[in-house]
Amino acid sequence: MSQHRNLSVVERSSIINLRDSGLNISEISRELNMSRNTVKLWLRRFDSEGSLERMPRMPQPSILTQERVQRMVSVYEQHPFTPTRLFAEEFDCTAQTIRNGLRRAGIRNRKPAKKILLTEAHKTARVRFARDYRDFDFSRVIFTDEKSFKSSQIGRRHLWRVNNTRYEPRNVLPNNESGRVVVNMWAWMSAAGPGELVYIPGRATGATYLELLQDTMLPTVRVVYPEAEHPEITFIQIFLLT
Length: 242
What we know:
The chain is built from 8 helices and 8 strands; from the N terminus they run H-H-H-H-H-H-E-E-H-E-E-E-E-E-H-E. By secondary structure, the protein is α/β, with parallel strands linked by helices. The protein folds into 3 domains: 9-49; 66-106; 116-241, Nucleotidyltransferase, domain 5 (2-Layer Sandwich), CATH 3.30.420. Strands 7-6-3-8 form a 4-stranded mixed β-sheet, with helices on one face. Strands 1-4 form a two-stranded antiparallel sheet. A two-stranded parallel sheet has the order 2-5. A hairpin with a 2-residue loop joins strand 6 and strand 7 (193-200). The longest helix is centred in the C-terminal third of the chain and has 19 residues, at 206-224. The protein is elongated.
């Protein structure tokens, strides 16, 4: 039996005609294959208004007025990590309503870029290094670094921003939050490609680092850069640039 459909004028008229012929609501429902509620609706409307025309639907006012949307946009432009539930609670609506309003305003949900938080001194040192070595031949340079991989304590993060603003400072999640150290690794690389990747048990000490250079880096580097062909190579530790 059909429950939700718009009745034609003929179908509505049939409801009245069948009642006038003596059928009750249940009989009309079976005869016209429509719900009892639909039959009662049109009988009640005809008896009270004398008409079978559909009532025009009045549009519901939007919870998100232009002023509210503009306020949300202003907040997310400055604080893109603001949870949508805060506005949902304030405006007494669902978080999905807030998300839909933000999308219509051009604010999209994105995963934030993650970058190491650099001080002005870090930035200055990196620019100076780039300028000083702009024309340097790096084909025989070995870069090394140690990396501590950590599990985040804050879980997966998202933000709301406009397109093409991924790397603006306010949209970047600083990669400096504390977490549980999972594993320490050390590796080297060069213009020829990645070199050796080594697991470091515990925290590296001076003795550990010296052992890495003597027992791992030098032997593996000479596989890529034979001493007969490359008697001199340059070694750069990445932390000097930060």
